[in-house]
Design a protein that fits this description.
Layout (H helix, E strand, L loop, with lengths): L1 H6 L4 H25 L1 H8 L3 H29 L1 H19 L5 H15 L2 H12 L5 H30 L1 H22 L21 H5 L1 H17 L6 H8 L4 H31 L3 H24 L4 H16 L2 H12 L3 H30 L3 H20 L4
Helix pairs in contact: 2-7, 2-8, 2-9, 4-5, 4-6, 4-7, 4-17, 5-6, 5-7, 5-9, 7-8, 7-17, 8-9, 8-13, 8-16, 11-16, 11-17, 11-18, 12-13, 13-14, 13-15, 14-15, 14-16, 14-18, 16-17
Length: 403
Amino acid sequence: MEAAMNQHRPSRRGYVVACVCSLAFLTIVDRVCISAAKSDISADLGINDAVFGWVFGAFAVGYTLMMIPSGWLADRYGPRKTLAVSVLLWSILTALTGWVQGTAILLIVRFLFGLAEAGAFPGAARAIACWLPVRERGLAMGLLNTGSRLGAAFGLWVMSLCVLRFGWRLSFLLLGVAGVFWAALWFTWFRDRPASGTPDSQTPKPQPIDKRLLRSPNVYLILYQYFASQFTFFICFSWLLPYMKTRYLLSGPNAGMYASIPLYVGALANWISGTAVDKVYRMGHRSLSRKLPAMFGFGLASVALVAAASISSVNGFILFFSLATFGVDLTLSPSWTACADIGGEHTGMLSGAMNMMGSVGSLVSAVAFPLLFGMTGDIKSYLYVAVALNLAAVASWWLALKE
């Protein structure tokens, strides 16, 4: 009887996946809270939209600069220490966000917040690579990004309510306390490797970067396509809620509800994509298991963005924008799984490099949206730029993983 019960208990690696998913959830809740509080912060500190674009962008700059170093740290010192320190630091900075009194200090705090949060996904990817065999990583990477989408959906909607009820300053403080609690639990419970050894015999310490990795076209194709996906997606973390609120004259909670819909759809896409990656891989098609979901996703996003640009109603716009989000999120599990395939013992660093390119795309998106909207008075110009980038990403995946 006891043996039968043990068979149905989650394995320790299942708990590891659950923990990194909760990390992704918390990471994005902390990140998008500023979007939910944008109107209140702007009113209190006297910040216009053009300047607030740089507030969003300050995070992306810090995130970009620290991404590769944080991946190296995860490879060198292990995800237990690096994730605990990363979460502790950004949680303190989240709480400090609620205390700022001026634009300059807000920019500095958001920049430092980006530096601290950079370690989250490379560290999580390294933890998955240490604990799970290749045949199971697609779904794990998909679930990791599902956690981030659910966190964003929760953050945009629930934090809009919290800001309305408690004010934006106290809302940031409460989030900071939650993060400190997570960091303490992770450091106490997690170990860098299973007691039985590392899946697929990965080495416990990173070796010097192989020059063949730096010369591989696969690396640069994977980096570019992630730039495209995050340029398209980052509006969900930054301008979508304020845009919906202003364009359709919605209340903060209603705008947050609408803005959360693409994120729930994205969570579903990550689960579907991760399942498809592992299933096709187990059929013996390693390259296709990465390429097909990604190419289909970028193609679907391109079509949906064109449709969204031609729709004027709030329901029609959010329907097609959600479909576009579904498409770009189909590409995430293949992207992170391909990093583990290509990077090997350098998974953390290569994941960091890819995420760095994604944060560059996020920065460009955060700054480009208000500029393009200000020049044209319409969201179409931004959406058409995203379409062009996504079509180029389809070509990137077509050419990738042929070595």
